[in-house]
Amino acid sequence: MTIVPQRFEILLVPEYAEGHEGPQEPESALRSAVVEATGDLGASGYPRYAGEGMEADIDARTRTVEALLVDGEELDYGLSALVVDAV
Questions:
Q1: Fewer CB in 10 Å around end: N or C, the chain?
Q2: What are phi and psi of 50, to 5 degrees?
Q3: Rounded distance, CA 80 to CA 87, Å?
Q4: How far apart are CA 53 and CA 71, in angstroms?
Q5: How many CB atoms lie within 10 A of CB 2?
């Protein structure tokens, strides 16, 4: 049985930020949001998380954002979404 985390924090960071290997600090993000599991699966087939203006389908095993809406819109070019454990 796989346990799916109930909360994550999504960090929106500039895509061009080289040398940022591994998790970034929430303070360095252009925007961040704590999202919680909704109990639904998104169109991508991964669990859906929502909160603070963001909706995301997240692969909890790899911490990869498979789909993301920010304030109801797709992510702007030049931004990347990183997933970290919510505090």
A1: N
A2: -150, 150
A3: 21
A4: 5
A5: 5
